[in-house]
């Protein structure tokens, strides 16, 4: 369903609810009027019983004639006030829906009253708005970023392929150009895989195909998968994986988290004397995994943005990554209802701590 | 020269793979889909299949089942654009020996093909030679080439055989447990440590291979003389 379609449907639905609600209100106004009329009549007869001498036989009729419209007016007045109060959040919601239909996600609907049914409705409405604005930002920036990120390697490929047709090239130049082209292709591949995965995860609201498995064994698998990379840089691994930590999740999905954290750690480790520490432990209400390196580290500004798609703080390592790894990590951890914290300083390495709560409640947003 | 059949519907990819294999010293046989591959099998001897999953007419899974159903134990390396775990599971369940996700790194393809062929050779010969030592799978025996021979307890033999079949590859204790004691076994992972220790004691002066402990990860057998990876 398109965004526009979704919103007009939503608007129609809320409009319909409101319509039936207004009908009920008008009904209750009439009810109030009727009751007040009856009460007025009652009072009249009561007054008559208390003081029958002051009454002639027209008095009750006169009294009723006066009391009825008066109470009707009063009743209407009150019901209008009350209905205004009650309907205010509904009007807020209507206005918000119209706003969202126009594509404006900036203002949440205010919660004006004490807890009641409306507060709940408004809260979930605001949740929906936040969620939608996330998707919207993802969609807007994304297309721009994607096109840019794809164009750069494509340009390189095209350019260097053209250069390759130059017959005067030396063999070393030729090899260099071929290396650049291969790297650009790998970059495109990595990006396509990342984007596909990220977009799949963005549309996912819960974790499917959960199973219980040993997290430390998964970490060992991921470490072995990248054996080539860390042995090449002669990185020393310090592993604290001796405890068996059973966790329930989708193992394939979760392995992307460790894969990305480890490949980042390897990437930012110095060429000599690199140390990566990986620890996995049971924690209060869940599990915690720490991946830390003693590499280049990063400043506060970089740390603020690392979880955003296509952000790359350290431009010297640009070619090795695609700015999608940590957004993937964040999304997957979010789906688990967990947290991913970073500690780092320039030159001091980086420590990523992932906390995943045990799955008792269905995790979503 | 080993004959490798490339079953792949995309003509460009097929041609590239054949080229890579030829450069790697193999004899490639191209086939555009499962049906063509089956008919080519009548005419050529095939040592290994490289098989795409998504193909018209007969897909990769069906092809494997047909081949395995007719008791061909030829190693099969599956390649696919999809990298999902369920795909991988189905591939292995159907009888594939290895699995690679596209785009395929050419060098890695050659490495895996050679590893698969080597293991197929070990599996058919049921023996494995490392330096002076020969492991005989049927007798669980290890002979040292100087007339000395010892017969090992089954688990110890299988452990050594496994490690030496994949020289340089690290196995976690769990992987070795699952392989040797079965997935359902609830034997302590430390049992592996005990067996490794016994193996080391059995071959105290072995200069042809060593079993190395990788702290926190597991074990690896290094054929000595080969550079540590």
Q: Can you describe what's shown?
A:
The complex is a heterodimer of chains A (365) and B (229). Chain A contains nine helices and seven strands, in the order ααααβααββαββααββ. Chain A has 365 residues and is an alpha+beta fold. Chain A has two domains: 102 residues; 157 residues, 2-Layer Sandwich (Heat Shock Protein 90). In chain A, a hairpin with a 5-residue loop joins β6 and β7. The radius of gyration of chain A is 33 Å and the shape is elongated. The model of chain A has no long low-confidence stretch (mean pLDDT 81). Chain B is of the alpha/beta class and 229 residues long. Chain B has two domains: 122 residues, Rossmann fold (3-Layer(aba) Sandwich); 98 residues, Orthogonal Bundle (Arc Repressor Mutant, subunit A), CATH 1.10.10.10. In chain B, the strands form three sheets. Chain B has a five-stranded parallel beta sheet, sandwiched between helices. In chain B, α4 links the parallel β4 and β5. In chain B, α6 crosses α8. The radius of gyration of chain B is 20 Å and the shape is elongated. Classes of the chains: A alpha+beta (365), B alpha/beta (229). Chains A and B meet through α4, α5 and β2 of A and loops of B.
């Amino acid at each position: 369903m398109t965004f526009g379609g979704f919103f007009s449907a939503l608007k129609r639905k809320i409009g319909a609810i409101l319509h039936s609600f207004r009908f009920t209100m008008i009904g209750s106004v009439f009810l109030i009027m009727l009751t007040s009329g009856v009460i007025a009549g009652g009072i009249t007869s009561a007054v008559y019983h208390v003081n029958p001498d002051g009454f002639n036989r027209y008095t009750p009729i006169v009294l009723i004639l006066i009391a009825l419209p008066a109470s009707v007016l009063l009743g209407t007045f009150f019901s209008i006030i009350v209905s205004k109060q009650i309907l205010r959040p509904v009007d807020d919601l209507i206005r918000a829906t119209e706003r969202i239909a126009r594509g404006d996600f900036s203002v949440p609907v205010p919660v004006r009253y004490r807890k009641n049914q409306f507060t709940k409705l408004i809260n979930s409405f605001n949740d929906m708005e936040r969620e939608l604005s996330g998707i919207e930002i993802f969609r807007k920036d994304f297309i721009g970023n994607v096109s840019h990120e794809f164009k750069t390697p494509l340009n390189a490929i095209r350019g260097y392929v053209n250069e390759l047709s130059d017959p005067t090239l030396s063999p070393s130049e030729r090899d260099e150009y071929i290396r650049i082209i291969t790297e650009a292709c790998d970059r495109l591949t990595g990006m396509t895989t990342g984007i596909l995965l990220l977009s799949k995860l963005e549309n996912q609201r819960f974790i499917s195909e959960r199973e219980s498995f040993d997290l430390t064994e998964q970490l060992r698998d991921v470490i072995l998968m990248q054996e080539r990379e860390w042995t090449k840089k002669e990185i020393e691994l310090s592993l604290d994986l001796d405890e068996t930590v059973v966790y329930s999740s989708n193992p394939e999905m979760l392995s992307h988290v460790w894969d990305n954290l480890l490949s980042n750690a390897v990437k930012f480790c110095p060429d000599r004397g690199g140390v990566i520490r990986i620890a996995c432990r049971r924690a209060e209400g869940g599990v915690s995994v720490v991946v830390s390196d003693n590499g280049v580290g990063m400043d506060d500004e970089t740390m603020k943005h690392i979880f955003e798609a296509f952000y790359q703080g350290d431009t010297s390592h640009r070619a090795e990554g695609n700015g999608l790894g940590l957004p993937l990590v964040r999304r997957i951890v979010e789906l688990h209802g967990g947290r991913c914290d970073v500690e780092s300083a320039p030159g001091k390495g980086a420590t990523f701590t992932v906390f995943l709560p045990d799955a008792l409640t269905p995790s979503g947003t | 020269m080993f004959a490798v059949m490339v079953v792949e519907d995309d003509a460009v990819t097929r041609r590239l793979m054949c080229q890579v294999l030829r450069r790697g010293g193999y004899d490639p046989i191209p086939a555009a889909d499962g049906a063509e591959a089956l008919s080519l099998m009548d005419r050529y001897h095939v040592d290994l299949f490289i098989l795409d999953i998504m193909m018209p007419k007969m897909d990769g899974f069906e092809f494997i089942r047909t081949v395995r159903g007719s008791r061909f134990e030829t190693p099969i390396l599956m390649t696919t654009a999809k990298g999902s775990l369920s795909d991988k599971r189905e591939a292995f369940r159907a009888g594939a020996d290895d699995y690679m996700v596209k785009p395929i790194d050419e060098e890695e393809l050659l490495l895996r093909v050679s590893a698969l062929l080597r293991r197929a050779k070990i599996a058919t010969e049921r023996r494995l030679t490392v330096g002076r030592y020969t492991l005989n799978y049927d007798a669980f025996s290890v002979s040292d080439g100087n007339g000395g021979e010892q017969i090992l307890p089954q688990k110890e033999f299988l452990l050594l055989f496994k490690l030496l079949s994949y020289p340089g590859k690290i196995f976690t204790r769990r992987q070795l447990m699952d392989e040797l004691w079965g997935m359902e076994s609830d034997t302590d992972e430390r049992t592996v440590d005990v067996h490794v220790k016994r193996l080391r004691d059995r071959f105290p002066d072995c200069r042809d291979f060593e079993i190395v402990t990788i702290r926190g990860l597991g074990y690896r057998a290094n054929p000595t003389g080969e550079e540590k990876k």
